[in-house]
Design goal:
alpha/beta, Rossmann fold, 10 helices, binds benzoic acid
């Protein structure tokens, strides 16, 4: 049965994610996010929005607890795959900075998404307006210091291979203080905020780091010949190997921020 309590008003197709690659080689994204559901504590009959649902695995886990769960993502490719994966659930293409639903939610959940959006105030405002009074916001994403080793290695490799002198970090990795302040400015009461290291094993053995960079950080690498690209990738791996490669597995130096806030 298609769960439709609500009507989506705004949809913003744009981001062309490769949903097949995401699902086959990056399942850690939602496997780790499942921990955060313990903070969400979904209750039977609640109405919960999953912001940045990707291919729908966590939306499905939320729904499995007797909740009416709706997933939104900016990438049409992800939503298309989410609908195929879980045809009984509702998924919509929508931009986290300006979505709007007619019916308010009991809770908004978000895993591994908010670091992609450089307008946190707008995301927080959208979440605020979609929650019922007393509703809760539970999120996990990259926090201050996230992937520092990886981005430093990419920067050095671009410089030493004379590819580019600098790059702009496209992500938003706030400290707890910074993010809690934004939430409080909006009117939220922050009841839980942590920042912790989570060295995350990547799939596919020796190819793990290259896959990760190609999936998530390709925008940092400018156009270059395939020879230059190979030597830049080797340089990145050589720099990272002592810190992030162990027994045949690459790791990403993730640092997560987790927050729980209520619309008081
Ligand atoms: C993260 O989940 O922390 C992340 C993933 C891709 C790019 C940057 C950060």
């Amino acid at each position: 049965m298609f769960q439709s309590k609500n009507k989506m008003v705004l949809a913003m197709p744009e981001n062309q994610w490769q949903s097949a690659l995401y699902e086959s080689k990056h399942s850690f994204v939602w496997r780790y996010g499942a921990d955060c559901l313990e903070l969400l504590l979904p209750q039977q009959g609640e109405y919960i929005l999953d912001v940045g649902c990707g291919t729908g695995q966590l939306t499905q886990e939320i729904a499995a607890r007797g909740v009416i769960a709706i997933g939104i993502d900016k990438a049409p490719t992800m939503i298309e795959q989410a609908r195929k994966n879980y045809p009984n659930l509702r998924f919509e293409v929508a931009d986290a900075t300006r979505f709007h639903f007619k019916e308010p939610f009991d809770a908004v959940f978000s895993n591994a998404t908010l670091h992609w959006i450089n307008e946190p105030e707008r995301v927080i405002a959208s979440i605020w307006q979609t929650l019922k009074p007393g509703g809760r916001f539970v999120a996990e994403f990259g926090g201050k210091g996230n992937i520092r080793a990886i981005t430093t290695a990419i920067g050095k490799a671009l410089e030493t291979n004379a590819i580019s002198a600098s790059f702009t970090n496209p992500w938003y990795f706030p400290s707890i203080g910074e993010y809690a302040t934004l939430l409080e400015k909006q009117g939220f009461s922050v009841t839980h905020a942590t920042l912790f290291d989570r060295l995350t094993p990547l799939e596919d053995g020796e190819k793990g780091m290259q896959n990760w960079i190609e999936m998530f950080a390709d925008s940092l690498l400018p156009e270059m010949s395939s020879n230059k690209r190979i030597s830049a990738m080797q340089d990145i791996e050589n720099q990272l190997r002592p810190e992030l490669y162990r027994d045949g597995t690459w790791f990403a130096d993730y640092k997560r921020i987790r927050v729980v806030a209520t619309k008081a």
